[in-house]
Amino acid sequence: QVQLQESGPGLVKPSQTLVLTCTVSGGSINSAGNYWTWIRQHPGKGPEWIGYISYNGISNYNPSLQSRVTISLDTSKNQFSLYLASLTAADTAFYYCASRTGGDWYFDLWGRGTLVTVSS
Amino acid sequence: EIVMTQSPGTLSVSPGERATLSCRASQSVSSHLAWYQQKPGQAPRLLIYGASTRATGIPARFSGSGSGTDFTLTISSLQSEDSAVYFCQQYYVWVTFGGGTKVETK
Lengths: 120, 106
Known about the structure:
B: mainly beta; 11 strands; 0% helix
């Protein structure tokens, strides 16, 4: 059974770049058809889709974040990572890695999430 | 961007009673609509996709309906463990989520 686990700093300073990593266990990150996604959720709000990277390295991002976001794949470590630049307090949120196994863009596999606070 | 609006913000229902949650899209999303349940400190859990198909392991008391712009999630007989926040999500154009409905048991 595939499981996802986020890791990264819980506290980052404004203007810095956030780097979060999601480790995939129980399956191969480059299996055909897999799309690895980052989603964030501000406390008390609905989730916000950040973007995805496919099993073969094709990425796509939320237009509202596109200028600051990069998602990369590391097949040797079975991980994918989120890079979010130019942080402000508005980026304080829970960050989840997620995936879809059903062939369409609903998410049936989630990590437990990690809280990232942007503060000096 | 397709905006998803959920109502009501909070729903208080007695155990065993029916809970009806609404989700409206700012434009048609056909049947590309999913519902999630989120309990405190946990990630969202997929309940429904394709507007009406239950995800694996989801109890039959959860059902979804609707198409186009108006959707409903129904919990036919509320159990105490169903207290949570419920989100809808469209995946017709990109991916956007609603703001959530909090379901409480009286």
